[in-house]
Amino acid sequence: METVLRPVVVVGGSVILTVLIGWVTDMLLRKADERHRETPLWGLLRRGRVPYQMVLCAALLRGSYDQAELLQEHRTGVGRTLTLVLIGAAAWLVIRIAAAVVETSYTRYARAQQDPARVRRVRTQVTLIMRVVAAVVGVVAVAAMLLTFPAMQAAGASLLASAGVLGIVAGVAAQSTLSNMFAGLQIAFGDMVRLGDTVVVDGEWGTVEEITLTFLTVRTWDERRITMPVSYFTSKPFENWSRGTPQMTGIVYWHLDHSAPMEAMREKLRDILRECPAWDGRACSLQVTDTTPNTVQVRALVTAKDADDIWTVRVTVREQMITWLSTEHPYALPRVNTAEAVLPPHHVPSPDGASLRRAYDFPRTGRG
User: What are the residue ranges of helices labelled H in the chain?
Assistant: First the structure.
């Protein structure tokens, strides 16, 4: 009877105690979250209740397994399995706790900071820091798991002795990967590009959606995703429309007839912008910037608070101005001139079709 009750009491007691401690801890975190609504720390810590309970259960079972006298012929294997579960669950719990602390710090900073650019920069840094922490904790956990095997402990000395050679070989083999990792850290702390920045890369306009230690994802205006190595942004030029201030200046071009009413177009431009919510009111102008034998090039300069709004302002001005010209001043639109050519002044054709001397030419003098 004792051989049956002993393992039931040990295993059942460990599970019940784990559930009880986990329930009490979760209740305390819930009450702390209700009392301190200004910080999300306690609510975020509740996300770690599963690895927390796994750590408790694995630790209790590992400590009391010898007293259970269960599966004695597999005692070593069961003990090592519980140790591996304990190490893995502990690493998982550490990552969850670190994520909760970092996310809480970022949330407080974002609430207190009024500059969106700085908030995006900190968000980028926080994301990459958490990836580094998770990678480091994962490597340490795997190393601790391997060291639980006697064969790995015996091979430790030889592994350490050959660490220099292995490091050189690994560095050569993973040169591109390491360069991308260092480029990712340079982007995070060099403030070159941040999550949410509007960028133009390889002629594609989009928003930075994800940054990791090795690659970066840009979401284009037509919902496509462009994924490229982060080393691209440290080795090639690119446009960052969100760098510094997000305010932008946009340009709209028209090709019109020489008779286009410039003053009336300037008044119409101001009327269009007054009715456009995306215009920030900083500046607007309309000028003739170039001329050809058939048309003139007219440029409108407008401003907006960010890249999305400048696009809206440009398309609105372009569309409404063309509509207004077509309705009110159709002669201002470009057209092909089919009228007869106007002769220069004092140019008289001869009866036989040959041109005579201009009337203002001086008469010939001299002999002859």
Answer: 2-35, 41-45, 49-68, 75-112, 116-147, 150-154, 156-161, 163-173, 175-190, 232-235, 262-274, 307-328
